């Protein structure tokens, strides 16, 4: 789950991380009022779940109340296009009005904490080259990104923070501030069960004061049960409508770009294998929907309905291992869905496991035009051909 910048800064401030003062605004009047309360000049920031806002015109300096009004009118309700939004962009529905900072003589850097699967531990990353082009820095000069692996048993240590501070070439006089700053970042990361915490830019002003000038936080969805208060920060307007719809029924839906095959699976590993074998067969998945191990016939029906709401889907590949989810339960749900929804696209089904023969018999007796396959390779070839307009 992602949150907005202003929400991330509120969480950081609660963990002792210095951030600029700011207020969220949902209207032009609220923006002007916030600017006057904070004191001009202010920075007006569009709040969307995507990076690259500055280059796209989503971050503007306002020196007067009239400028705040003009900028807020232009931003609110507009569609912002960045390298992370895709061609559809994101509609700006709220703004962060933040105190202006004197950037003369300042230094902009980069800090982040991520979970590294290779080392099975959090990793603290830093670069002296922060700002809007950090992705370009990482691509062209990976050595410019310093890394410190963190042992979860002992946490982020002061000596590691000092190593990063020296790597950033911070003045010795700022070490007394930099070490607790970075340790507070890690406490926030650990405290909210984040999977990503990114500060870009990490700002050192001319007088040596340190600020998190931006904040991006992504939470581990599997840990949200420990943080019911964080669920209130979710902005459904920023999420794919089909992903939101799937979550209502305990389903996991992920939209993919450029594909035409809708995939219904149970289990993340099977989802990855299904997408790989579709690619090997010459096709491309349009999405995948994981119904999980304990789905019932009604969830299967809802899953099929969500797949059909994706306009890119030209054929559906149902690839299920019948363990906890029995094959006959799957067949019952699929048959009901195809009938109720009047599904017109080809449906290829490969099922293996518990009550497999019963499930196949139900499909045969349904009178519906399903295509079945005994193995994944055969099924993938059939669904790719069907999606391309070949044999169904």
**Uncertain runs:** none
Q: Biggest sheet: strands, sense, closure?
A: 6 strands, antiparallel
The assigned structural class equals alpha+beta
Helix content: 25-40%
Shape field: elongated
Estimate the strand proportion: 15-25%
Distance between the termini: 38 Å
- Give the overall average pLDDT: 92
Number of strands: 18
- What is the count of helical runs? 13
Radius of gyration: 25 Å
Structure, explained:
The protein is of the alpha+beta class. It has 13 helices and 18 strands. It has helices at residues 5-14, 28-38, 65-75, 134-140, 158-167, 175-191, 228-231, 241-247, 268-280, 297-308, 327-341, 356-365, 376-387, and strands at 22-25, 42-46, 59-62, 79-80, 90-91, 95-99, 107-116, 121-127, 146-149, 194-204, 210-212, 216-219, 252-255, 261-265, 285-290, 315-322, 347-353, 370-372. Strand 17 (347-353), helix 12 and strand 18 form a beta-alpha-beta unit. The protein is elongated, with a radius of gyration of 25 Å. The mean pLDDT is 92.
